[in-house]
Amino acid sequence: MRPDCPAMAVPVEQVRRRKARDWSPGHGSPPQPERNPAGCPAHLRAGTFWLTRIVLLRALAFVYFVAFLVAFHQNKQLIGDRGLLPCKAYLKSVQQHFQGRVSWDAVSYAPTILWLLDWSHMDSNLDALALLGLGISFFILVTGCANMVLMAVLWVLYMSLVNVGQIWYSFGWESQLLETGFLGIFLCPLWTLSRLPRKTPPPQIVLWGFRWLIFRIMLGAGLIKIRGDRCWQDLTCMDFHYETQPVPNPVAYFLHRSPWWVHRFETLSNHFLELVVPFFIFLGRRMCILHGALQILFQVVLIISGNLSFLNWLTIIPSVACFDDATLGFLFPSGPGSLKDQVLKMQKEKARGAWPTLRYGPGCMVRQTVNLALGVLVAWLSIPVVFNLLSPKQVMNSSFNPLRIVNTYGAFGSITRERTEIILQGTASPNASAPDAIWEDYEFKCKPGDLRRRPCLISPYHHRLDWLMWFAAFQTYEQHEWVIHLAGKLLANDAKALSLLALNPFADRAPPR
């Protein structure tokens, strides 16, 4: 509009009075967002974590959903009735170890609700656990609200799978998800299903539990590298990592070909982020926020550079606890009645002293007792973990209790310089030793095989068999019982085992000889 337009000639005060008259409450207009004296929308204040809890719960529900999806698609083939390592046989061996009965010792050794179910239909049991976990995690992911009951059910369900998963569930992210999920239980009210349960603000002890978790994850990963492979000290590890990591993705192909100075910078940055930045958590609000931002950025880079299951997605979750509502407000829409508007009103009520206090109510006393007990439990279980961090013989990705509430972490303490790949082949030739015998390759869904095939991109999803094939390449088949079981099932063209593969050269044909 041109400056000399007649509309511009209307006095500003007259326009303001007209708008005020048109928008008065008497005319049924909607309420407007809170504004400060300068006329700008009011900003959330620092120090509260209502929105933080919503982000934490949704992020945790997302990882749970992926984990249970992997379980639903692969558990029957891996630990089912006719799996590569049936969990029924594993539970029977545990039972025999403890005098052949389901005693408290057996249950505490392998805590799982499968002890209570009918073992004659183990595939159905595994599917039921996975489907129930999928349903609950999807509900929390969509709604952003949860209570202690739902979060405890998710934790028990996944723990039940991890403790019978044997080698398929033997990696650090399984224990990390259980520890993160355990803390998530105490982030919520007991029964209430509300995104903003006014009577149950996020407990500070739980937020510090998440921060203590990310501190141990990052520092443990940094220390295991400094104490491990010498290439981390001479800054050459990244020359090999992208090529020799378990399951490379398409981006890894190009990162591997970066100039040498880029790899040196990557290694130095890794040391800074894992050995220095974790201490930012204890240096006040701004440094804690900086820590969270740097760690999330670091995990995003790792997600882009390789298929590391849901590990890096999971590691982002405790970093979110470094941000308060004022920091995360940009993630939520503004407007009357919005979550951000409700949090702002609660902050103003508290500032005016109008906030309802239940400090001495029975429910509040129980809640405070539970939070105190949680803090004492985590502190007590952290003692061996801290000693492990300080030890020159540090052990990574281990648990000191069967519930995996507080664990040790670490990754890539050693880097392989050359990639060794297992290739499974079959032949229909009557004489397999004959020079003219034709051997045909089986192809996995994500594990490198055919050199003409583009690397896969699946994170946060995870192919457990493909991942274990990378570890099997470091040893012989005699040291991996499941490899022999897999070969036997391929010789029989077993449909369940073949569902874990991308290409069966003997499909619609007789099994290989």
TrEMBL record:
TM region(s), chain numbering: 50-72, 129-157, 177-193, 205-224, 296-321, 370-390
Lipase maturation factor 1/2 N-terminal domain residues: 169-328
Domain of life, per lineage: Eukaryota
CC terms in the record's Gene Ontology section: endoplasmic reticulum membrane
Keywords linked to the UniProt accession: Endoplasmic reticulum, Membrane, Transmembrane, Transmembrane helix
Name of one Pfam family that matches: LMF1_C
PANTHER family referenced in this protein's UniProt entry, alphabetically: LIPASE MATURATION FACTOR, LIPASE MATURATION FACTOR 1
Disordered, as annotated region: 15-38
Record protein name field: Lipase maturation factor
Functional summary from the UniProt entry: Involved in the maturation of specific proteins in the endoplasmic reticulum.
Family as reported in the entry's similarity comment: Belongs to the lipase maturation factor family.
Membrane topology: Multi-pass membrane protein
GO biological process: protein maturation
Presence of the UniProt keyword Transmembrane helix in the record: yes
Localization in the cell: Endoplasmic reticulum membrane
Residue ranges constituting the Lipase maturation factor 1/2 C-terminal domain according to the UniProt record: 405-513
Keyword Cytoplasm found: no
